[in-house]
Amino acid sequence: MDTTTSQLQSFTGTVVKTAMMNTATVRVDRYVKHPKYKKYRVRSKQYLVDNPGNAAQVGDTVTIVSVRPISKLKRFAIVSKEKTAS
Predict the structure, then answer these.
(1) CATH code, residues 10-83
(2) pLDDT (tens digit per residue) in 10-40
(3) What DSSP character marks residue 35?
(4) Are 8 and 79 in contact (CB under 8 A)?
């Protein structure tokens, strides 16, 4: 029997909201090329992430990684803070 290890999904984004206890909302931006006009556009998606102790604040740049389901909508956790908001 083969044992396979999967690569965890990870993103880098900006914290946009910390109103909930132990939860932060992180916006992840990505560039998408328009199929006809060949112009790049910014597409963004927001994820609810686990923020134990409310360590991350609004404006921080964080790295999030997929984890087991924590609640109905939380499937990610903050791994590290790269840049702190001024």
Answers:
(1) 2.40.50.140
(2) 999 999 999 999 999 999 999 999 999 999 9
(3) T
(4) no
Task: Collect all residues with Cβ–Cβ distance below 8 Å to 81 and sequence separation of at least 6.
Answer: 55, 56, 60, 61, 62
Token look-up 């923020």 returns 51
What tens digit of pLDDT does each residue of 48-73 get?
999 999 999 999 999 999 999 999 99
CA torsion sign for 26, 27, 30, 36 is positive
The amino acid occupying position 35 is P
How far apart are the two ends of the chain, measured CA to CA in Å?
52
> How many residues are recorded in the chain?
86
74 closest CA partner among 43, 52, 44: 52
Prediction pTM value: 0.85
